[in-house]
Design goal:
The protein has 282 residues and is an alpha/beta fold. It has a single domain, classed as Vaccinia Virus protein VP39 (Rossmann fold), CATH 3.40.50.150. The protein is 30% helix and 25% strand. The chain is built from ten helices and 13 strands. The strands form three sheets. An eight-stranded mixed β-sheet has the order 4-7-6-5-8-9-13-10, with helices on both faces. A three-stranded antiparallel β-sheet has the order 1-2-3, with no helix packed on it. It has a two-stranded antiparallel sheet with strand order 11-12. It is globular. The N and C termini lie far apart (38 Å). The relative contact order is 0.15. Bound molecules: zinc ion (ZN). This is Methyltransferase domain-containing protein. One of its GO terms (biological process) is methylation. Keywords: Methyltransferase, Transferase.
Length: 282
């Protein structure tokens, strides 16, 4: 697999420019990072890891890949491409901060090929990046949202899809007036699954918007995609549970109820919000 080295890549140890030299990313101070055979580079420093194998496990990534490839979230991929395409011509460097196994990126770059030249995708899970890198040529990295290995003011657009936004770091990496596209589960998302696994559903407080404004992001537009899926067979139900955070919070009884299902229709409810970083934010 070939690795595309984006020109804004910087060394996680000292912030100097990383260049691709005979299959290795190296900085002028002599730090070097190998290109893995799947076509990505691991720039996650040991001290940034909060566990030995951070992020989604191999089993979660496999489940997500199988589920997403079955097409149940295709309307979400289409909405992402629509918003990104409408956001503009002139988008050069687009960065997916938390790319998972690359489903959304592969669809986005197929729908909007102009974005493919300078696309960067990273995830803290090496299993996710190993799955994403072979899907589409781009700069694929194992890295953390807490320390994005890109120069200040180098990205035209950041994507944070069902991820963990680090707004201060996003603000650093985005160009002045750059765009941040967030996708988040809405209140009805996977309601049928959640009803089965939690004794009581608690409504989630929507305090997100204040934190974006405080971090210097201005809301440009919002959209919401809601629909119900076709019937999921047992295998897909198990994958859906494994790929969401709900598995870890579910009681044993809840998991047993889900495991006993033969068929399930679920509601999809996802909100997309497009922000711009304030033109003169520090
Ligand atoms: Zn270095």
């Amino acid at each position: 697999m070939s690795f595309q080295a984006h020109e804004a890549l910087c060394c996680p140890l000292d912030g100097l420019t990383l260049d691709l030299q005979s299959g290795v990313l190296a900085c002028p101070q002599g730090h070097s990072f190998d290109v893995a055979r799947q076509g990505y580079v691991n720039l996650l420093l040991a001290q940034e890891k909060r566990s030995r194998d951070p992020g989604d496990s191999k089993a979660m990534i496999t489940a997500r890949r199988n589920f997403l490839n079955a097409g149940y979230y295709a309307q979400l991929a289409a909405e992402l491409a629509r918003v990104a395409a409408a956001a503009g011509s002139g988008l050069s460097t687009v960065v997916d901060a938390g790319c998972g196994e690359g489903y959304y990126d592969a669809h986005l770059l197929e729908a909007v090929p102009d974005l493919a030249d300078n696309f960067v995708g990273f995830d803290i899970s090496k299993w996710a990046v190993q799955a994403a890198a072979p899907r589409v040529p781009a700069t694929w990295l194992v890295a953390s949202n807490r320390q994005i290995p890109l120069r200040d003011a180098s990205a035209d657009m950041l994507l944070s899809l069902f991820g963990f936004p680090e707004l201060a770091e996003f603000g650093r990496v985005l160009k002045s007036g750059g765009l941040l596209l967030i996708a988040e589960a809405g209140t009805e998302h996977l309601l049928e699954l959640r009803r089965l696994i939690y004794p009581q559903l608690t409504a989630k407080a929507d305090d997100a918007k204040d934190s974006y404004a405080a971090a210097g992001f201005q809301l440009q537009q919002e959209s919401r995609v809601t629909y119900t899926t076709a019937e999921l067979p047992q295998e897909r139900i198990a994958e859906l549970l494994l790929m969401t955070p709900h598995l870890y919070r579910a009681s044993a009884e809840g998991k047993a109820r889900v495991a006993a299902l033969q068929r399930l229709v679920v509601t999809i409810d996802v909100r997309f919000r497009l922000y711009s970083s304030a033109p003169f934010a520090v």
